[in-house]
């Protein structure tokens, strides 16, 4: 990460939230098994109350639990930072399911043994803890009240949640956190990174939708106008038009490789002659059993609309699979979508409720409606999975990268099928 990017981020964060850079005022929840590091990469270790070694454990679950324990120890947090919104979501799920054990560890100043936590590392981390019976009692009292808005109740001075990605596949997690655990807190996504290269920085922490200033000397970017013109020719930074969408072509160090990144950006304005962009979609993430090409983010919008018709339901996570990947288990009907959803607040769905999603898709996508009418695409099949199924799936990935919602890996698909409850 260029030092200029880190400094711009810190300056923007401090301007919007003056206490955000207080010593030990930031808790980090991020799994980096290849080596402990903060996602932002800035050289200010005194910001963190979280030991770097806690994020480098071989197990993602063990790393997040250890980091959560150190975060709970500090009542006066100002910033809660996560490498991915999914990591924050999973850490708070651990709090919801295991708060009695966390409270015991806080009261005793210990780190309980668990899978994926080597004894030597556990000893070193435990030496940094101190018994705090009062904080443990506060944790028990707040968790006993329920978990709506739990984050601000546990850390009353908290000002902002920082996540490395708040768009695309991670937007669903950010929305779920805003609605429940992190009610009332702004989410700030400071950096725009593609293919390992930093391209831009968000200078507007208090705005709900992230916008990124593209910095010209961090990587060489070219842009393909969308929709594609007859003469397929890239344009450069100085040739972009406000309000238009462009596909990103990236040449990044190291290696100086040139590739179509699969990212579509919208130019929302300019800041001192440099374009400010909003990520719109990833072109590679589409559903297509008959060539209908439904973008992932628009499918998610239809799903959220259907969930809104199921009283009391809150969407936790989902994946959608083209039926061909399921083989014989998908039945003998025409190719169709198989959707696996995890809900909170609702245990089962009637056939009429399940059909709402297929109905929403037909209303939102005329081409899908046409194929359904002709019978060349069969009825969508909706499956409910058990609580925590997607957290276990992310653990099985063995990688901190976010999981795409259009699932294509057979190994992960088998894990999801094993959690279906209806």
UniProtKB/TrEMBL annotation:
Domain GH3 middle: 213-282
Occurrences of domain GH3 C-terminal (ranges): 307-396
One GO cellular component term noted in the UniProt record for this chain: cytoplasm
InterPro entries, A to Z: GH3, GH3_C, GH3_M
GO terms for MF: acid-amino acid ligase activity
Coiled coil: none
Domain of life: Eukaryota
Protein name: GHDC protein
Organism this protein belongs to: Trogon melanurus (Black-tailed trogon)
């Amino acid at each position: 990460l260029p030092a200029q990017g880190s400094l711009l981020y810190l300056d923007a964060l401090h301007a919007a939230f003056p206490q955000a850079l207080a010593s030990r005022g930031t808790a980090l929840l991020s799994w980096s098994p290849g080596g402990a590091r903060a996602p932002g990469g800035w050289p200010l270790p005194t910001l963190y109350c979280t030991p770097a070694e806690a994020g480098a454990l071989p197990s993602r679950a063990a790393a997040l639990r250890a980091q959560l324990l150190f975060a709970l120890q500090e009542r006066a947090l100002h910033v809660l930072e996560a490498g991915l919104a999914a990591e924050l979501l999973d850490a708070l799920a651990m709090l919801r399911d295991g708060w009695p054990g966390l409270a015991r560890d806080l009261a005793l100043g210990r780190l309980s043994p668990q899978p994926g936590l080597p004894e030597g590392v556990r000893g070193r981390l435990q030496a940094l803890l101190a018994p705090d019976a009062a904080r443990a009692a506060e944790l028990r009292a707040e968790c006993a009240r329920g978990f709506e808005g739990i984050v601000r109740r546990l850390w009353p001075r908290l000002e902002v949640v920082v996540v490395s990605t708040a768009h695309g596949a991670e937007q669903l997690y950010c929305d779920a956190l805003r609605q429940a655990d992190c009610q009332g807190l702004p989410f700030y996504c400071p950096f725009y990174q593609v293919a390992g290269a930093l391209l831009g920085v968000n200078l507007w922490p208090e705005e709900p939708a992230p916008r990124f200033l593209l910095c010209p000397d961090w990587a060489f970017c070219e842009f393909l106008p969308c929709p594609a013109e007859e003469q397929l020719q890239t344009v450069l930074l100085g040739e972009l038009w406000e309000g238009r969408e462009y596909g990103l072509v990236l040449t990044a160090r190291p290696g100086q490789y040139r590739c179509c990144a699969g990212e579509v950006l919208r130019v929302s304005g300019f800041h001192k002659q440099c374009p400010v962009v909003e990520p719109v979609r990833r072109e590679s993430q589409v559903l297509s059993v008959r060539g209908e090409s439904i973008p992932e983010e628009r499918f998610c919008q239809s799903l959220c609309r259907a969930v809104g018709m199921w009283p009391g339901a809150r969407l936790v996570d989902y994946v959608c699979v083209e039926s061909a990947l399921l083989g014989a288990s998908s039945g003998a009907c025409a190719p169709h979508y198989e959707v696996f959803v995890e809900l909170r607040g609702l245990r089962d769905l009637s056939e009429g409720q399940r059909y709402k999603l297929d109905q929403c898709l037909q209303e939102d996508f005329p081409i899908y409606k046409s194929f359904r009418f002709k019978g060349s695409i069969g009825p969508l099949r909706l499956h409910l999975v058990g609580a925590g199924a997607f957290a276990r799936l992310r653990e099985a990935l063995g990688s901190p990268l976010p999981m795409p919602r259009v699932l294509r890996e057979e190994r992960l698909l088998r894990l999801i099928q094993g959690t279906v409850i209806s």
